[in-house]
Amino acid sequence: MEEIQLYLDDAKESMLKAVKQTEVEFQKVRAGKASPAMLQGLSIEYYGVMTPIENASSITTPDARTLAIKPFEKKIIGIIEKTIRDANLGFNPQNDGDTIRISIPPMTEERRKGLVKQVRAEAEVGKVRIRNIRKETNEELRKLLKEGASEDDVKSAEEKIQNFTNEYSALLEKVQEKKEAEIMTI
Is the pLDDT of residue 171 over 90? Predict the structure, then answer.
């Protein structure tokens, strides 16, 4: 049945998006190496509009332990520096009037374990998203059953939804393991 296929396609696409969203959240968790993604989500007021720092400056990593932020306009350097300081990321930005440099301190074992916990919590949020998609799709499929769809078609679709759930949960676990290994590598 065509309508069932639409639900299946939509569920698969939504589950993939849930995995991708979790990967984006993982990028925000620093793994000891400097990365422009560490500043993702930080915005400044730029010409009266809230603008992500990466859209108002060039962010580079001159080495594994340093972030360099070069604003497109010198007048906003102080605003960017204050935003980074106020974000409570544990960074101490140094402003030389032209570029902001952030030295990324090596992580302690305790900090690494804390970040692994954070990754696990974020992964669980992703898994809950996937399970919710399964639940919502199954509810929609059961409505189709009441509207006259064949029981066999609906059962088959529910099995496929469960397979998608298993597949994307396993994918999410692989991504999680990779991130945890990255964090624990000194």
Answer: yes
